[in-house]
Amino acid sequence: MTTVTLDTRQLRRIMRKLDQLDKPILKRRAMEKAVRHYRSVIAEYPPQTGANVPPGLNGYSWYVRGDGTHTITGRVYRTSEDLGPSWRVEVAADGETGRVYNNTTYGEWVQDKRKQTEFHRVRGWKNTDDTLNEETRTIEGFFWSEYNAALETR
């Protein structure tokens, strides 16, 4: 399983401010937005390459997303588990943590930072850690937006 945990300990400053407002729903709403945003980014497929169109890079087989491996002899190996749409989210009731995960059997070889194969990296597949680092400011922005909106309604 490929899993990314969004933990508010990395957002200490804004979390202290939200705690002062004593409205736990603000954290939960912000975390829900954060995990949905992260899921939309990590689930994006890179552009197709020669590995996805006949006759493939090896002249014999190619991979059709959402289906599996096809060969020039007409054989089809239906191995796809729909990686992109398989990303799921969970948010703790207190909004302190959120989890974005994927249960496909091969997801970690495609998108997990520590296990991603070179084949997938060079074809533009995003990995979980780099994507989280790239999206941290946007994620933090969801928490600041909730805080600022709460101040405006006081």
What would you say about this model in short?
With 154 residues, the protein is α+β, with helices and mostly antiparallel strands.
Oligomer: single chain
- Major sheet attributes: 3 strands, antiparallel
Helix residue percentage: 40-55%
Order of helices and strands: EHHEEEEEHHH
What does this structure look like?
The protein is of the alpha+beta class and 154 residues long. The protein has two domains: 2-45 and 83-152, no CATH class; 47-81, no CATH class. Helices cover 42% and strands 18% of the residues. The protein contains five helices and six strands, in the order βααβββββααα. Strands 1-6-5 form a three-stranded antiparallel sheet. Helix 1 (12-21) runs parallel beside helix 5. The longest helix is centred in the C-terminal third of the chain and has 25 residues, at 128-152. The protein is elongated. The termini are far apart.
Write the layout of secondary structure elements.
Layout: E1 2-7, H1 12-21, H2 24-42, E2 61-64, E3 68-71, E4 76-77, E5 87-91, E6 97-102, H3 107-111, H4 118-122, H5 128-152
Antiparallel strand pairs: 1-6, 2-3, 3-4, 5-6
Helix pairs in contact: 1-5, 2-5
